[in-house]
Design goal:
This protein has about 210 residues and is mainly α. The chain has helices at about 1-5, 10-25, 30-70, 70-75, 85-95, 95-105, 115-120, 125-135, 140-150, 165-205. The longest helix has about 45 residues, at about 165-205. Residues about 155-160 have low confidence and may be disordered.
Amino acid sequence: LVVYGQGKGATTVFLVLGGLMTLCAGLPLPGFMFLVFAAGILYGVFYGFLMAYGISFVASCSWFLFYRNCCGKAVVKYFGAISERTKLWLELAEKDGIRIVFLVKMLPFGGGGTANVLFAVLTKVSLFDFAAGLSIAHLKFLLFTFVSSSAGSLANLHPSPSVKPANAQYKQRSRTLHVVMGTVGALVLIALCWWAYKTYSEIERQLD
């Protein structure tokens, strides 16, 4: 898939991946984080990040406006009864929109389309506050693409016999560096998730 996505199928893979990102950014579907990992493997750290960040920002803001002005209430009905705990979080978002949007969106599995619907329909968070919190939180995608791009280099750690020794040695060192940097990136990502969990738990205690 990587070879196809970087070769003659580059346009098709880009459109499919971008389309899936757009859907996951607005619909209550899981999996956006894994699409970001895929972007990192296919396009590398920087370009994979730009793709995921750009699509997620534009799509999330567009879905936010769509739900707020169109059929958001009908979508919320499919969620069933909203828990009291969720209602308290939404009330807190009324007072501190940017911070709560940032926290929810920064969590690895907590910032998908479901959150967009709830923020748009059940709160008065402005588009500006939503976009501000979103833009800061989604910098986490740089870590995702960093880790996945480094992990992707593991697929070909051993140089081909046809490669010149000097080039082979350089590529081997480069891949080793990617492994080390990927490990560091994974540790940073774990620390980021831990910080999010601690912050979330602190707010939970305040709500109690």
